[in-house]
Task: inverse folding
């Protein structure tokens, strides 16, 4: 749903409002019309359960959320949100909620009746937050598109908040560790991924890598020798990797 333009000043914010009081909801919507070139109300709800259902399928640029609601308070609402990829602004008539609101990762809070100057500051915070996130998302997409269209396509791993682009030749082998996997590189580095080995195997080119064991994938170009009797492969780095009996026949065919 995000509708970003070319700069932070031109970001159009698409907002959702949740408030059980119709008058309060209409009042905030009316206040937001004063910033119609910056923010647009795309949906509003007096029923928090309907709002949750909407937010499961739609991602706004921000959510204005009332705290005092009879069927479900705002903090319970936040806990039930499955998708939290947008900033939340708490609206309340009680300022004692301010600290708790910020601890619940709300970007800001507004006291009712909402002051126009306070709302202006809140919108500025939302725009700054979304512009920062948009920049990183856009850069990631540019890098992914460039890599997919490149003749010299690299293997991409997403780890520790960064994208790594590796050549086939930089990877020795991968090892399973339950729901995690470790990639061992020729320069001695290790990359830990929050992926099972099966997922890693799908990311690696079939002509260069082979899952030689339930716990290991090797780079076929890094094999130094195969110890038939012992059932081990020795890599050029002198790492000794077991070959499972089930994989032995397919492995020999690959060679």
Result:
């Amino acid at each position: 749903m995000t509708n970003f333009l070319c700069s932070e000043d031109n970001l159009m914010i698409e907002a959702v409002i949740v408030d059980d009081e119709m008058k309060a909801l209409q009042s905030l919507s009316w206040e937001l019309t004063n910033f119609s070139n910056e923010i647009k109300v795309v949906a509003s709800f007096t029923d928090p359960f309907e709002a949750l259902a909407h937010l499961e399928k739609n991602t706004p640029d921000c959510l204005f959320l009332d705290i005092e609601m009879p069927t479900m308070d705002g903090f319970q609402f936040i806990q039930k949100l499955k998708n939290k990829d947008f900033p939340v602004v708490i609206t309340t008539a009680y300022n004692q909620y301010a600290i708790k609101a910020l601890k619940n990762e709300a970007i800001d809070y507004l006291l009712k009746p909402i002051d126009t100057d306070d709302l202006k500051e809140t919108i500025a915070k939302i725009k700054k937050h979304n512009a920062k996130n948009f920049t990183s998302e856009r850069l990631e997409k540019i890098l992914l598109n460039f890599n997919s269209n490149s003749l010299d396509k690299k293997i991409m791993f997403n780890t520790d908040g960064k994208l790594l682009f590796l050549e086939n030749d930089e990877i020795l082998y991968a090892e399973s560790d339950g729901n995690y996997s470790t990639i061992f590189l020729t320069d001695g580095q290790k990359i830990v991924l929050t992926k099972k080995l099966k997922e890693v195997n799908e990311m690696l080119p079939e002509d260069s890598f082979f899952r030689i064991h339930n716990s290991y994938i090797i780079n076929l170009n890094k094999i130094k020798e195969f110890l038939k009797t012992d059932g081990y492969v020795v890599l050029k780095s002198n790492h000794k990797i077991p070959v499972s009996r089930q994989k032995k026949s397919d492995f020999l065919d690959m060679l």
User: Anything to note?
Assistant: The chain has two domains: 8-143, 155-254. The first strand starts at residue 13 and ends at 18. The domain at 8-143 is CATH 3.40.50.2300 (Rossmann fold).
